[in-house]
Amino acid sequence: MAVKITFRKENYVDEAEAVIKDFKHGKYELTTSQIRNLLISTIPLYYAVRTRRSDSYDDLIAAVRINAVYQSGRNQAVKELVTSSGILDILDMINFEDDLKNKSEKILRFCKYMEAMVAYFEFYGDKD
User: Fold this and answer.
1) Domains in the chain: how many in total?
2) 3-state DSSP call for residue 125?
3) Among residues 8, 30, 4, 34, which one has the least CA distance to residue 124?
4) Domain residues for 45?
5) Residue 105 lies in a domain
6) Exposed/middle/buried for 22, CB within 10 Å: 0-12, 13-18, 19+?
7) Radius of gyration of the chain from its Cα atoms, rounded to whole angstroms
8) What's the pLDDT score for residue 122?
9) pTM of the prediction?
10) C-beta of residue 14 within 8 angstroms of C-beta of residue 112
11) How many CB atoms neighbour CB 52 within 10 A?
């Protein structure tokens, strides 16, 4: 059963948990290293927003997107996670946000969403 991702501030952590629970019952085995590689790519984006280093985060969003696509191409388990978690759709939605304040809030939420998926992956046990 696929999880419907709405990415609202009141439920994104629950959605991250549901994605991981659903993924754990799937046919692909993901490692801690693979999921952390996705999380690590969000660090420059997170700190740029926290320090208000930019008036546009489009290049950093693109870098996270490119990394997710690259990692997905290297491993079917990562591709399945990227697809089921809606990572690319969320990044597209954020990238087209016109208001910088809203964009910043959504970027921070996205970074926390990624962090929550890693946390729940560890909580429910990994394959490493």
Assistant:
1) 1
2) coil
3) 30
4) 12-123
5) yes
6) middle
7) 14
8) 94
9) 0.92
10) no
11) 9
| Residue 3 resides in a domain | no
Phi/psi at 81 (nearest 5 deg)?
-65, -45
* Per-residue b or e along 69-95, where b marks 16 or more CB atoms closer than 10 Å to that residue's CB: eebbeebebbbbbbebbbbeebbeebb
Are the beta carbons of 54 and 10 closer than 8 angstroms?
no
Both tokens of 54, joined, read 């930019």
Q: 5 lies in a domain?
A: no
Tell me the pLDDT of the chain (128 aa) as tens digits. Answer: 477 899 999 999 999 999 999 988 888 899 999 999 999 999 999 999 999 877 779 999 999 999 999 999 999 999 999 999 999 999 999 999 889 899 999 999 999 999 999 999 999 986 54
Rounded distance, CA 41 to CA 61, Å? 10
Residue 2 resides in a domain: no
Contact between 95 and 61 (Cβ < 8 Å): yes
C-beta separation of 88 from 69 below 8 A: yes
Three-class SS state of 27: coil
Q: Which residues contact 107 (CB under 8 A, 6 or more apart)?
A: 45, 46, 49, 57, 61, 94
